[in-house]
Specification:
By secondary structure, the protein is an alpha/beta fold. The chain has a single domain, classed as 3-Layer(aba) Sandwich (Rossmann fold). The protein contains five helices and five strands; from the N terminus they run E-H-E-H-E-H-E-H-H-E. Strands 3-2-1-4-5 form a five-stranded parallel beta sheet, sandwiched between helices. Helix 2 links the parallel strand 2 and strand 3. Helix 3 runs parallel beside helix 5. The longest helix has 20 residues. About 5% of the residues have low confidence.
């Protein structure tokens, strides 16, 4: 039997992250698992012009605070019958796929559910794919989902 006790859903608060969250909530509910929500604030220091390091640091602090507030609103109130204490929320700073994999290892995550933009061609080559990198490096199974794809709906 598959045993899922810790499920991680990384989110960037996009439509793609919302789709992954729906799956994460359902899996956590079905398996009685703890749901971990993670947002990674990217390091933007490399993009801040010389002399702007202080402004960059302030921006990251503000971004982390905004992300923490946004995570507090997830998932929707009616999701967990046992209460919101079944949800662990974290905001970290770094490179998204690195921090997602690190979090999964540190917290002994059993399943990662990540939204995918489904890019291909040039945009995929230039932008890369966080989901693809997570799949390659994760210490556990990874389920990737996209909005508008197959939905599991009870009749």
């Amino acid at each position: 039997m598959i045993k899922l006790e810790q499920i991680l859903v990384p989110t960037d608060f996009s439509e793609f992250g919302g789709t992954a969250l729906k799956y994460g909530c359902e899996f956590a509910s079905r398996f009685g698992a703890r749901l971990h929500l993670l947002h990674v604030v990217e390091d933007n220091f490399a993009f801040v012009p010389d002399g702007g390091l202080v402004i960059g640091a302030e921006l990251i602090v503000e971004t982390k605070q905004a992300a923490e507030k946004a995570l507090e609103q997830l998932p929707e109130q009616d999701w967990l019958p046992d209460g919101r204490d079944q949800v662990q929320r974290s905001v970290v700073q770094g490179t998204p796929f690195v921090e997602i994999v690190r979090y999964a290892r540190t917290n002994e995550i059993d399943l990662i559910i990540v939204g995918s933009h489904g890019r291909s061609g040039l945009s995929h080559m230039l932008l890369g794919s966080v989901a693809e990198r997570v799949v390659r490096k994760a210490p556990c199974p990874v389920l990737t989902v996209r909005p508008g794809q197959h939905e599991f709906v009870m009749p």
